[in-house]
Amino acid sequence: MNKRVHIWITGFVQGVGFRAAARRKASELGIVGYVRNSPDRRVEVVAQGQSEILDAFLAWCKKGPPGSKVQSVQVTEEAALNEFGNFRIRH
Prior knowledge:
It is a single chain. This protein has 91 residues and is of the alpha+beta class. It has a single domain (2-89), classed as Alpha-Beta Plaits. It contains two helices and five strands. It has a five-stranded mixed sheet with strand order 4-1-3-2-5, covered by helices on one side. The N and C termini lie far apart (29 Å).
């Protein structure tokens, strides 16, 4: 089943390649959506894909790439709108 999640990642997650690594991981898993830095130093992700695959992506988000220090991950499920064709970095 296709599912969509809105993720907010808190910690030392900006300036460490988090967005590029998230894009690589999402593309590798076949997830669509976007990642971007927010002004409050968190990283925001909207991701859509198969439920099991999103679970794997969420597990990755809780660790992040080398050099990051994830403190918390907040996840909200949303209606899958099928508006994305790929996973990209938004600015």
